C-alpha cells in the first residue's frame, strides 16, 4: 500500500511540475510595431533573392527602432520558406535569421507570422483554401510549424513570438478553432513557453473574437485582430477592392461621404452615409477587449492602416483616434505596413512619411 501511495505521489509531483512549467509566463511584451510586408511574403515571392535581400536590411531595423517602435511583425509564406516537397529553403531562413538578430541588436521584439499557405489564401474563393477540408493539408500546416520551431527555438521566448496563420477564412468558426488549437498543441509540445498569437475567423475580425476558442490556463497567448474600418477610408481607391471606383472625397470623423457627393458615389451610397468617429471604433474594439479581460490575456491589433490615396488630413485624424484608443485600452498593435507605396510609413523609394509616423506613435 505504501508503495502505491509513493508511486501516486511521484506521479502527482511530476504532473504538478509539468503543469507549473507549462504555466510559466514569459516577458514577451509589446506595444507599437510595424509589419514587414512584401519581403518574405506576398509580392516578395515574385522577386529574386537579391531583390528581397536588398529590400529589408539592418538599416531598416535600426530606423524602425529609432522612430520608437518596439517590435516588428514578419509575414512569411510557405511558398517562400519551403519548396513543394516541404523542404526548408536555406536562403529564405537565412534572411529571417538575419532579421531576428538585428531585432536583438536594436532591442526589438518580433512576431513571426505564417501569412499564406499553399492550402490557404485570405483572398479569392474557397478553392484556394483546401486547408479546411483536407486532412493532408492540415498536417502539412502543422509540419510547417514543427520545422519553423526547429529553426527558431533558440531565440528567447521574451523576444520572439509565433502567429500560426494570418486571416483565416473558414466556412465555419469551429473548423478554424479545431485547426488552430491543434497547431497550438503542436507548438506547445516543442516550446511550452513561447508566446503564440491566436486570431479569430474571417480575416481576424473583431466581431468574431468571442467565438475564438482559447486554451485554458495558458498565459503565453495573445489574442490578435485586424482593423481596417471604415474601408471607404482605409482602402480608398484600392485596385483590389470593391471601392476601387470611388472618386469623391471620403471624410473622417463624421459621415463618410458628404450629402452633396452621394449622388456621384451611388455604388457606395449606403456605406457613404455611415458615421464613423472614435466612439464608434471604441465599441468595435471593446468586443475584443472584453474577450481579453475574460481570459486575462493581452490584445494585439496585428494589422491596421490607411492607404496613401486617402485624403491626408482625414487619414491622420483616424490614426490619432486609433492611437488614443489603443492606449486607453492597453491594446498592442502592428501598423500595416513598413515599406510600400500603398500603406507604408516609408515608400519603396525610401521617402519617410513623417506626419503619419508621428500620428501612429502619438508624437503629435
Describe the structure.
This protein is an alpha/beta fold. The protein has a single domain (27-240, 278-360), classed as Glycosidases (TIM Barrel). Helices cover 42% and strands 13% of the residues. The protein has helices at residues 2-22, 49-55, 58-67, 78-81, 90-105, 135-152, 173-190, 201-204, 231-234, 259-262, 269-272, 278-295, 312-329, 354-360; strands at 32-35, 71-77, 109-116, 160-163, 196-198, 221-227, 254-255, 275-276, 298-304, 332-335. The chain has an 8-stranded parallel sheet. A two-stranded antiparallel sheet has the order 7-8. Helix 12 packs parallel to helix 13 (312-329). The longest helix has 21 residues, at 2-22.
Notable features of this structure?
alpha/beta, 364 residues, eight-stranded parallel beta sheet, two-stranded antiparallel sheet, TIM Barrel, 14 helices, disordered N terminus
CATH fold call:
TIM Barrel
What count of structural domains?
1
How many distinct beta strands? 10
What is the fourth-level CATH superfamily?
Glycosidases
Order of helices and strands: HEHHEHHEHEHEHEHEHHEHEHEH
CA-atom Rg in angstroms: 22 Å
- CA(first)-CA(last) distance: 73 Å
The backbone outline, from C-alpha atoms, is: globular
Give the spatial strand order of the biggest sheet. Answer: 4-3-2-1-10-9-6-5
CATH architecture group name: Alpha-Beta Barrel
**Main beta-sheet strand count, sense and barrel state:** 8 strands, parallel
Structural class: alpha/beta
Helix content: 40-55%
Q: What is the top-level CATH class?
A: Alpha Beta
Tell me the β content. Answer: 5-15%
> Unreliable stretches, pLDDT < 50, 5 or more residues?
1-22
Amino acid at each position: 500500500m505504501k508503495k502505491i501511495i509513493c508511486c501516486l505521489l511521484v506521479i502527482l509531483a511530476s504532473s504538478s511540475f509539468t503543469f507549473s512549467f507549462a504555466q510559466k509566463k514569459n516577458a514577451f511584451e509589446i506595444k507599437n510595431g510595424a509589419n514587414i510586408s512584401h519581403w518574405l511574403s506576398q509580392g516578395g515571392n515574385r522577386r529574386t533573392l537579391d531583390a528581397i535581400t536588398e529590400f529589408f536590411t539592418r538599416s531598416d531595423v535600426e530606423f524602425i527602432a529609432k522612430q520608437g517602435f518596439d517590435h516588428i511583425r514578419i509575414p512569411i509564406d510557405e511558398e517562400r520558406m519551403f519548396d513543394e516537397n516541404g523542404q526548408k529553403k536555406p536562403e529564405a531562413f537565412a534572411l529571417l535569421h538575419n532579421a531576428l538578430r538585428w531585432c536583438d541588436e536594436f532591442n526589438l521584439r518580433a512576431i513571426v507570422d505564417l501569412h499564406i499557405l499553399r492550402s490557404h489564401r485570405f483572398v479569392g474563393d474557397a478553392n484556394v483554401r483546401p486547408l479546411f477540408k483536407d486532412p493532408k493539408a492540415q498536417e502539412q500546416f502543422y509540419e510547417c510549424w514543427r520545422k519553423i520551431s526547429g529553426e527558431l527555438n533558440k531565440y528567447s521566448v521574451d523576444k520572439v513570438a509565433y502567429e500560426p496563420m494570418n486571416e483565416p477564412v473558414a466556412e465555419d468558426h469551429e473548423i478554424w478553432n479545431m485547426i488552430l488549437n491543434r497547431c497550438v498543441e503542436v507548438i506547445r509540445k516543442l516550446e511550452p513557453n513561447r508566446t503564440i498569437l491566436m486570431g479569430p475567423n474571417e480575416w481576424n475580425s473583431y466581431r468574431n473574437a468571442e467565438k475564438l476558442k482559447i486554451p485554458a490556463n495558458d498565459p503565453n497567448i495573445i489574442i490578435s485582430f485586424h482593423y481596417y474600418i471604415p474601408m471607404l477610408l482605409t482602402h480608398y481607391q484600392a485596385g483590389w477592392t470593391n471601392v476601387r471606383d470611388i472618386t469623391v472625397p471620403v471624410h473622417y470623423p463624421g459621415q463618410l461621404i458628404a450629402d452633396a457627393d452621394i449622388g456621384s458615389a451611388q455604388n457606395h451610397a449606403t456605406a457613404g452615409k455611415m458615421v464613423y468617429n472614435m466612439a464608434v471604433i471604441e465599441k468595435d474594439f471593446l468586443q475584443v477587449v472584453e474577450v481579453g479581460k475574460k481570459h486575462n490575456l493581452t490584445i494585439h491589433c496585428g494589422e491596421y492602416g490607411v492607404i496613401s490615396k486617402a485624403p491626408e488630413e482625414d487619414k491622420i485624424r483616424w490614426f490619432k483616434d486609433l492611437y488614443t484608443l489603443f492606449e486607453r485600452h492597453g491594446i498592442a498593435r502592428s501598423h500595416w505596413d513598413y515599406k510600400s507605396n500603398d500603406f507604408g510609413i516609408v515608400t519603396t523609394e525610401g521617402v519617410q512619411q513623417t506626419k503619419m509616423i508621428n500620428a501612429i506613435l502619438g508624437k503629435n
